[in-house]
Amino acid sequence: MKLPLLLSLLLLTACSVNNQVPMAEYQQGLAKLPPVTVFFKRPDDDFRQACESFDRGSLLDHCYLNQLNLEKFYSELKAADVFENVLYANKDVGYQLLLSTARYHDEDAEELGSAVTAGLTLMIAPMIMTQHIKVNVALNWYGYALQQFEYELPLELRVSILNTQQDMERDIAKSIASHLLNDIQKGDYFSAAYLAQALQSSDYEAELQTPEVASNYQRDSIGYYHHPFQGAQLRYIHQSNNMDYIDVFVYPVRSPYWEQERKDLLAKEADHVKKDIELTHKELEFSDTAFNNYQFRRLPLAGGELELVYFENEYIDLLQNNNASKTYIMMLGDKFIKVRHTAIKGYSQQEEVDNFVTQLLNATKVPQESVFMAKLRKQWRDQGSL
């Protein structure tokens, strides 16, 4: 009678062989967050010292720093399908998740007893290890600190011949990823506005003012870039022809001497814009891209005149339409305003587009020089760069 009873108890015990790790809920199917990359980071002094102190406390106390399989954490984060992309240790990605972990393990009497039982049953009954892991996750943007997330998660890891397909390191990585995603979705940590606040860069969403209508063009859309060098982009569409549109870009002047070198800066920016157009047309497989020489012009404003640089270009798109584009580049404060008009060649009138630019500029207010750009420009001046 004793043997069947023992076997029954062992079978009941063996039914519970799954690792016990806490999982947090997060949503899928939402708008994707910008790409991120994952790294380990060196633990902070307090974080490291707490782990080392615990490890020295007893022969049965152990603590391991950064003993997390980062590749499995990366895989779990990618599989969650919350970000546009997740990359592994890629320094070219702006948003970076830097992890430090400390895995605490106290071998108590209960665990030692489970090890004995597991041995007597040839590992049918699971050996149970009770641990907890402390996690610090830093969210950075190109090295700038944005937010810190901290977790302390209990782990009950079970080893048995009945769960050889289990992957305890993947279970731990999945638990950490779920808690991190739960917290990320509670805030707006990946928004352009949050980044602007953290960096003290210009908040175009709050500070940029532009008209709904200028000349015969209606504002159709506006978007805000995360990178502070890129600013905002707007599109205006002609009220009687949706093939006639104007794109407006507002972004900071990347120069330490933006107040003194305006004409030179406009000319250099025109050269940069031409190169960008050529690259874009090449990627889109447009053909016969041709530019005229740029010229300096002055447009009347309410407070006087504003100097700008102007050029035209033509190209043939994939539908074999012959398009003409007009580009205006000017400066308001420490910001470039780039206006690019596009329409079928011969359709639009120069005067109508000039009127749009004049009305746009008279009604536009750009953010003041940000703390971020002021510091960066001072750094450039001190280093003699740009």
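^ that was protein a. below is b, sequence first then the tokens
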Amino acid sequence: MSTITSGAMEMNWDPGQRLAEVHFIGAADATGEEAAPLVDALERWIGTDGEPFGLLGNGAGLRSLDAPYRQVWGTFLRQHREEVCVAFFNLGPAIRIAADLFRVGTGLRLKAFAKEDEARSWLRGMGIAA
């Protein structure tokens, strides 16, 4: 397992499951500056062979996302639209709406759930070992 921390965000990568898990350390206002190192690490971890992978995000503590944060993750996820499945849980109401709008606007396989077990179950149904 590999781990990277940037600001209030931490991401773990399990190469066997091809699953990245992101969570926030305490209350967080996520920025593009903090997102860039995570996206760079994930780009290295997934490789260039186009294998499917999952992104599981725990939104507990997440208060806001700035525009550069959305741009950094949006660019990466659009580039990997065919191989990524994204599941979020513990999102506050405003962040959940933003996630749903992002899904509609990008066509990503992305879904928000109330609980972690629901998010993991959906990822497994999408073929990601979670």
